[in-house]
Design goal:
The protein is α+β, with helices and mostly antiparallel strands and 465 residues long. The chain has helices at residues 17-32, 63-77, 90-101, 108-115, 117-127, 173-179, 184-204, 268-284, 316-325, 330-338, 375-384, 397-407, 422-436, 443-452; strands spanning 8-12, 41-45, 81-83, 135-141, 154-158, 168-170, 217-221, 227-236, 239-250, 257-262, 290-299, 304-311, 355-363, 389-392, 410-419. The protein has three domains: 8-112, 3-Layer(aba) Sandwich (Rossmann fold), CATH 3.40.50; 134-221; 227-452, D-amino Acid Aminotransferase, Chain A, domain 1 (2-Layer Sandwich), CATH 3.30.470.20.
Length: 465
């Protein structure tokens, strides 16, 4: 495709990792003088769903009107590409706009097929049944009576959601009933989040003769007890390519992420099996272009690999990890794909770490007061661990209560770090946690904290090199 000197590129719902990642990637592409990408100029649009007053726009958000407005601006201002790694609205809006403008992009139907969790299970059952789990639609609308005859335990989750919202294991009819009770405000939020997707899914995946199941529903799956992993990659010209695998490590006894870590401990042969499953599924849904993330379980004892879900976009939290540990910048990959340029032609950096992780700090007690790092503590972290990337998620009391109900915990902070190896990474994490006044996201340290009933502090820690 022909690019103008400035190559104006739209980045939708561009915040947190994406804001940092895109800024970094644009600068690196400029310095490397990558043909077609050295003069990128980003334009931003969209809003933060988790920050007030930005999230007030949810009240009147309409996907078609949103993309209509973007199309008018794109034609008027000469935009040349669009990218987004935002699960709820961004990836779908980017696909719609790219199709209208004739730009490279992930096909709309492929985005919808991945995000409609029940539809995705049905496709997976056809093309890779050995990697599927038993599943069924919960035969009840939001808030309606839970039907009898369900075998427990079961894992329940929305047909369309993001960030594991309302996904949890239930052990009985009573637990499932309690989990599916919502107040008027909760129902309004859920419906406003899902309705834009529902309209497009019925239009593109279903038909008058054969409509698909509504996304305004919950579904049930057989629970899996196994370690969790993420396969990340992209598709260019129909060629499915892996970037790597990240290990997802949970807080003990929960399904809440404690750390996301590289390098993976998963054997290379199992990683190859995961890629084979991804190829079969992505081809079946027509995913011919774009970044993807496949979440899956692997049980070493039974040698069973089970797909959790496919995300039709980058897992933005992992971009920084791959940059540190592998030398691949996924945000640069996304920009290349948006302009129809083969990511394999991008210069690859030398990895700066033997191990890297994104540490997740959580509260599991709704009554617990979370400590927020002071300016002095933030400065101390920056001085001791200059490579650290800190995110803090302060919320209102109502939002925190909703997180505990919908997610089972409140994620109040994240720190990305790297080290020479796994032991060095842990030492740096422990030191960073002490500097911030936060609990250490490693299993034994977390258990010590629970036993002591106080913030974990190890006075023996010394500043990292």
């Amino acid at each position: 495709m022909t690019l103008t000197a400035s190559a104006p590129t739209l980045a939708l719902f561009n915040y947190d990792w994406d804001s940092l990642g895109h800024a970094r990637a644009v600068e690196q592409l400029r310095r490397a003088q990558v043909p077609g990408l050295s003069a990128l100029r980003l334009i931003e649009d969209g809003f933060d769903l988790f920050t007030f007053p930005s999230n007030a726009r949810l009240a009147w958000f309409d996907m078609d009107r949103f993309v209509d407005r973007l199309e008018r601006r794109a034609r008027r201002e000469g935009w040349q590409a669009v990218t987004s790694h935002h699960e709820q609205f961004g990836a779908l809006a980017a696909a719609l706009l790219a199709e209208r403008m004739g730009w490279p992009g992930t096909p709309i139907k492929a985005i919808l097929a991945c995000q409609h969790k029940l539809y995705a299970r049905q496709v997976l059952q056809r093309v890779a049944p050995e990697a599927n789990v038993p599943f069924a639609l919960l035969d009840a609308e939001y808030g309606a009576a839970v039907p009898d005859g369900i075998d427990y335990p079961r894992f329940v989750k929305p047909v369309k959601a993001a960030f594991s919202v309302l996904a949890r294991e239930v052990a009985s009819h009573a637990e499932l009933h309690a989990h599916t009770r919502f107040g008027a405000w909760e129902l309004w939020v859920i419906r406003r989040l899902v309705e834009p997707f529902e309209r497009l899914a019925q239009r593109h995946l279903g038909s008058a003769a054969q409509p698909i199941d509504s996304a305004h529903r919950m579904m049930l799956e057989a629970p899996v007890k196994a370690d969790q992993f993420n396969l990340d990659g992209y598709v260019f010209g129909g060629d499915v390519r892996a970037v790597g695998v990240v290990d997802a490590i949970m807080y003990p006894g929960t399904r809440a992420f404690m750390r996301h870590q590289l390098p993976s401990r998963l054997p290379s042969a199992v990683q190859a099996r995961a890629l084979d499953v991804a190829r079969r599924f992505l081809r079946a849904v027509g995913f011919e272009h774009g970044l993807f993330n496949m979440e899956f379980f692997y049980d070493a004892a039974s040698d069973r690999l089970s797909v959790i879900e496919f995300n039709p976009r980058m897992a933005s939290q992992y971009s920084d990890l791959y940059r540190r540990g592998v030398g691949v910048d996924l945000h640069a990959v996304g920009l290349a794909l948006a302009h129809g340029i083969d990511p394999a032609t991008l210069p690859q950096a030398v990895p700066c770490a033997g191990a890297a992780a994104s540490m997740v700090y959580r509260s599991f007690d709704p009554t617990e007061a979370v400590h927020w790092p002071t300016p002095a503590q933030r400065a101390a972290l920056a001085a001791a661990c200059p490579e650290a990337q800190l995110f803090v998620y302060e919320k209102s009391a109502g939002s925190i209560a909703r997180d505990h109900k919908w997610l089972g915990s409140y994620r109040y902070g994240i720190v990305d770090l790297h080290g020479a190896d796994a032991a060095d990474l842990r030492a740096r994490c422990e030191h960073a946690s002490v500097l911030l006044g936060w609990r250490v996201p490693y299993a034994d340290a977390w258990r010590t904290d629970l036993v002591n009933g106080a913030d974990f502090v190890d006075s023996r820690l010394t500043p990292s090199a």
